[in-house]
Amino acid sequence: MAGSVADRQTAVVVPGVSPDVFPWDKYPLPRFLYKYFPPERLHVLTQCLIRFSQRQVFEDVYDLRPDVASFGNEDAMLEFMADNPALSRHPPWLREAAAKHVLSTPGREAALIRQTQEWLTEPDNLGVLCLTENPASGRMWEQYTDAGHGFVVAFDTAHPTFIHLRSPGRIGKVEYTDEPVPDFLTRYGMNVYFQKRTQYEFEAEWRSIRGFSRFQPENIRHPKDALPIYLAPFNPACIATILIRSQCTVEWALRTLTAIDTRYRHVRVEFSR
After folding, report:
1. Most Cβ neighbours (<10 Å): which of 49, 234, 253, 271?
2. What percent of the chain stands above pLDDT 70?
3. At what angle do helices 108-119 and 92-104 cross, to 10 degrees?
4. Domain ranges of the chain
């Protein structure tokens, strides 16, 4: 997954400095990653299609678009304007005056950050598959399986077919912080897509991110008066276990599936802690 420094470009069109270590390079992929499902999502297993969700459906409005502390210092702004084909046409003295105006005028820098974030379309063109390394989170069993009525799927990341859930795209571990991105021009890049606020730390999330342009038309649903639903196919061979709790309302449907569907004969249905 790691490429040369020259290959490492930020995902947004700003002159930000690509980090030395990208989110997908920082942590080894766990052998198993888990996905929590409510009982009505049993069709995910029968159809072998799983959703990559838009930023707009997440609970946290800062997801994929975190807060930013500053736009950049004067040097960063001048470098940005020098690299921008439109802005570089202006004489250096005018570019310097513009940078000083942004930094010295109350509210101007904050307004510029808001305008620039709104200008960035990349966060709205990405789908996210949220996984976790923790299959025994009481809070997630409560929130994401309808109080234990659903189930948890364990994906074996070492199985060759797991590649269909991580490529095309990138998979990486989410880091949790309440600190804003310190500098838009030099620190805002692909890293922000693997950052969440600390109130979500209980999720122990890993996420696979994929551009919507990479989804096949037959796997895109267009419900009336709602956002499109982007689905990615997966191979059941990469599923190791299905976890349930005593409250599960689809236990026998799951046991029947693993008993008679040859795609799932290798999968165990087990009770979670």
Report:
1. 234
2. 92
3. 110
4. 5-64+124-271, 74-119
